[in-house]
Amino acid sequence: MLQAVEDHNEYVKRAAPRLQDRGLLCAGVPCSLFVSISHSVHGRYDWRLYGNERHFSVRVANAIARNTAVLVRLLLKWRPTVYVVLENPLSTWLYKLPCFKELLKEASFFFVLTYMGLWGMDILKGTRLASNLPTLASLERRATKKVKAKFQARVARKKARAARAGKSEKCFYTTGQNENGQRIFTGGPDLAATAEYPQRFCTALYTAWARALEVKPFV
Known about the structure:
The chain is an alpha+beta fold. It has one domain. Helices cover 39% and strands 16% of the residues. The chain has 6 helices and 6 strands. The strands form 2 sheets. Strands 1-2-4-3 form a 4-stranded mixed sheet, with no helix packed on it. Strands 5-6 form a two-stranded antiparallel sheet. Helix 1 crosses helix 3 and helix 3 runs parallel beside helix 4.
């Protein structure tokens, strides 16, 4: 582990000078084994934050999370003027991991809640951003009853247009019940597409960064 940290340190030490002052790093750690929809596999609880590491996939997910936390901490050590935005779904366990709790505290990151569905995605997908970008609060969105109704109407219109064109409806997830009667979610064939950020979200993030730099965005 110490050798891995030393290797990361040397890599970031060499790479950091190539980043411009107040540059922006946006990182979305793979979330598939940190969210509630995959709980039956990862088995994360408050008393077992790193989950069921008997599964190779869980060990890999944890290694990626640890590496990301180390890399960001080293980056901010060698380039403290860089802005960082970390992204994960609302139900993620990622930010509860000790390595991330240490990073968030050390770097004085704050959280911003938003919903990708309010930026153009076809599911709401509550998202929590952790960052030191001072203008990021402009991306905050709340899924109020009125906002949800507007979102659902937009998606319904889109589904109707797809049906008229003879296209099949997208399936992001299905719901059911387990043996205890609890509601469960199962990922569908189109769930992977939700890893892509909507264009409007990207534009808003870029605009927030430009505001922090006090320059006019090219949009």
